Automatic annotation (TrEMBL):
It comes from Luteimonas gilva. This is D-xylose-proton symporter. GO terms for molecular function: transmembrane transporter activity. GO terms for cellular component: plasma membrane. The lineage of its organism: Bacteria, Pseudomonadati, Pseudomonadota, Gammaproteobacteria, Lysobacterales. It is a multi-pass membrane protein.
Length: 469
């Protein structure tokens, strides 16, 4: 039997997907930049555990709002306009957060940035899925997660550099502003770059067909699918049109089946989003500097550990991009769930060994400190090669065309609310014991394995028009 030859993918497709994925970079940067500022903000504004938990996580409420309205914005004004809205919100948040006078100002501007993050979290994977050939859609969709982890790395790296230059996160730096304020302000630059680059990419062909502009849709498809045959182009436009008959202005009721309940595929999307957050990954990226500092590491060493963890996250995301279209989505998720359950359980055991140091502060005695560090980084490895990128790939492709935008908005909103629940509760939970916190996350990782095995469908190699309820 002859082996099918996959069509050549034009470099322009990768460039277009990379520009869209820059929203993911800002997503990662904006959500992780608070990591280096937590202790300084808490000290400057005199916050307790509950207040700092809300200050750190408040952006996620804005993200849920942005994710919810991203679908209607994208369907009414287009994917490109939605990305521009995200860029403006993120740029405004960067400046506003760095110049706040009090904690409630910070909460406001962080929520503005959160709206931008929420919009980007929905639009980027949907847009990338809609302009990608099926046989590379997983890899191109994974660019979103790669951009997110690069944004996290950039945020944590810049946090460490700014704190080092100033002599501490609370110390003054340029123009008399504390280093933690500059940690927020620097995000203005990539937000502006993102907004400008979006001006140079084409609109989604599926949006263009939905709006009746079949000629422009064919032009875009010619660019991204390497189709030079006019008859083949018209057939593809016709296939898209047929799949979009009921997609025009989708409503929440379109997500329900004949019995009135949500369609199974919508529930699966929501639970994928919830489990991605309930395994506690963002505790590592939002609180790791504070966490390692709290168990005896210096502030400088805590920043270094956090940056090293973000580098690990970037590297394993590259591995995931190489594997997602070869191994498939479901096997990667199952491997990740099993690995996270084991490493989180080990972290819980390590933190159970913590005791008071000479000055009464919490310490992890040897060999538990080193073991906890190894376990934390292995946990990031298992997440980064699976649930990090694969969930975004699945959310961008798993829904039928007629409900994709609204279903993705619902799933992404659920993800941000789950993220808020975990992030805001961690400081209070940590006061009761870090061992308890990581045991809870380990239990959710184990539940996620059962969910993957029994509920998640494989989508590798399927066209978007083949997705079913």
């Amino acid at each position: 039997m002859a082996t099918a030859v996959r069509p050549h993918v034009r470099p322009r497709v990768f460039a277009i997907a990379a520009v869209a994925a820059l929203g993911g970079f800002l997503f990662g940067f904006d959500t992780a930049v608070i990591n280096g500022a937590v202790d300084a903000v808490r000290a400057d504004f005199g916050l307790d555990a509950t207040s700092i938990g809300f200050a750190v996580s408040c952006a996620l409420l804005g993200s849920a709002l942005g994710a919810w309205y991203a679908g209607p914005i994208a369907d009414r004004w287009g994917r490109l306009r939605a990305m521009q809205v995200a860029a403006v919100a993120l740029a405004a948040s960067a400046l506003g957060s760095g110049l706040v006078a009090g904690v409630w100002d910070l909460v406001l501007w962080r929520q503005v940035g959160g709206i931008g993050v929420g919009v980007a979290s929905v639009i980027a994977p949907a847009y990338i899925a809609e302009i990608s050939p099926a046989h590379v859609r997983g890899r191109l969709g994974s660019l979103q997660q790669l951009a997110i982890v690069l944004g996290i790395f950039a945020a944590l790296g810049s946090d460490a550099l700014l704190a080092a230059w100033a002599g501490g996160a609370s110390a003054p730096l340029w123009f008399g502003l504390s280093a933690w304020r500059w940690m927020f302000i620097v995000a203005f630059v990539p937000a502006v770059i993102y907004g400008l680059l979006v001006l140079g990419v084409p609109e989604s062909p599926r949006y263009l067909v939905a709006k009746g502009d079949k000629g422009m849709a064919a032009t875009v498809l010619r660019q991204v699918l390497n189709l030079d045959d006019d008859a083949a182009l018209q057939r593809k436009v016709g296939e898209i049109g047929a799949s979009l008959r009921s997609e025009y202005r989708p409503r929440l009721r379109d997500l329900c089946g004949p019995g009135g309940g949500l369609l199974p595929v919508v529930w699966i999307g929501i639970l994928l989003s919830v489990f991605q957050q309930f395994v506690g990954i963002n505790v590592i990226f939002y609180y790791s500097s504070t966490l390692w500092h709290s168990v005896g590491f210096s502030e400088a060493d805590s920043f270094k550990i956090t940056v090293a963890t973000s580098i690990v996250n970037v590297l394993v995301t590259l591995v995931a991009i190489a594997l997602v279209d070869k191994i498939g989505r479901k096997p990667l998720l199952a491997i990740g769930s099993a690995g996270m359950a084991a490493t989180l359980a080990l972290m819980a055991w390590c933190f159970a060994q913590a005791g008071a140091g000479p000055g009464g502060e919490l310490r992890l005695p040897a060999p538990w400190g080193a073991t906890a560090l190894v376990a934390a980084n292995l946990y990031v490895v298992f997440f980064g090669v699976s649930w990090g990128p694969v969930v975004w790939v699945l959310l961008g492709e798993m829904f039928p065309n007629r409900i994709r935008a609204i279903a993705l908005a619902v799933a992404a909103s659920a993800q941000w609310l789950a993220n808020f629940a975990i992030t805001s509760s961690f400081p209070r939970l940590a006061e009761r014991g870090l061992s308890l916190a990581y045991a809870v996350y380990a239990a959710f990782a184990l539940l996620s394995l059962l969910f993957v095995v029994y509920a998640v469908r494989e989508t590798k190699g399927l066209e978007l028009e083949q997705m079913r309820d």
